[in-house]
Amino acid sequence: MTAQIRTVDLDRFATFLPGLGRLLVDAVNTGASLGFWMPMSQADAILYWREVLQGLVREDLVLIVAEDGGEVVGSVQLLLSDRQNGHHRAEVRKLIVDTSRRGHGLGRALLAAAHVEAAFRGRRLLILDTRTGDAGERLYESMGYTRAGEIPGFTIEPDGARHGTTIFYHWLP
Ligand SMILES: CC(C)(COP(=O)(O)OP(=O)(O)OC[C@H]1O[C@@H](n2cnc3c(N)ncnc32)[C@H](O)[C@@H]1OP(=O)(O)O)[C@@H](O)C(=O)NCCC(=O)NCCS
Predict the structure, then answer these.
(1) Domain annotation covers residue 86
(2) Mutate to test the pocket of ligand 1, among 92, 129, 137, 138 (most ligand atoms within 8 A of CB)
């Protein structure tokens, strides 16, 4: 079955919540840099997604999921700037594809869906950051993003190891 990509509104959020939790746990516990240390529990993940729910309530966040047979297999978010001088921009956040589904174009399809949603809202400047050296860098560059720069030592692991982050931007046509 092919994954369906859709935005999640407030009414349907609860339906997706357990699957979103599993998606985040899967990514974090296999080493993705998404702001959390492993091991992550489902309960911790649910707490995170409840913060995302607040963004949906405030209407400054767009949540997009890929689902297949009732399972959440991917997700991405757009954080819409609420600044007076920033109504043309949004931040792409937490692009995640389930480990069992990677390498088949789903990440690219989710990002393309985020672009459609951003353009629909007049948000033509997109910004994001991703751990330097991760697969995301190639994906973003291949989708037209420009590398703005790198910040060394942006994240820190429990053992003290630090990793850089790369900041990208993209103007939608
Ligand atoms: C980044 C991520 C979303 C990509 O999802 P995906 O479905 O595997 O990506 P796609 O199959 O659409 O691949 C798109 C492009 O990404 C790049 N890419 C994907 N996997 C890659 C890998 N393992 N190594 C290097 N580049 C990779 C390639 O450029 C690829 O294009 P190509 O197939 O034409 O070469 C996925 O690896 C993921 O969920 N990672 C963990 C979370 C994360 O780090 N998110 C990004 C930071 S917010």
Answers:
(1) yes
(2) 138
**Which pair of tokens denotes residue 131?**
């751990």
Helix pair 106-120, 135-142: axis angle to 10 deg: 50
pLDDT tens digits, 42-69: 999 999 999 999 999 999 999 999 999 9
Inter-residue contact 148 to 171 (CB < 8 Å): no
Q: Which domain holds residue 24?
A: 4-124
Cα separation values, 18 from 73, 76, 80, 153, 154, Å? 12, 16, 25, 33, 30
User: What total of structural domains would you count in the chain?
Assistant: 1
Atom of ligand 1 nearest to the CA of 142: 29
pTM of the model: 0.97
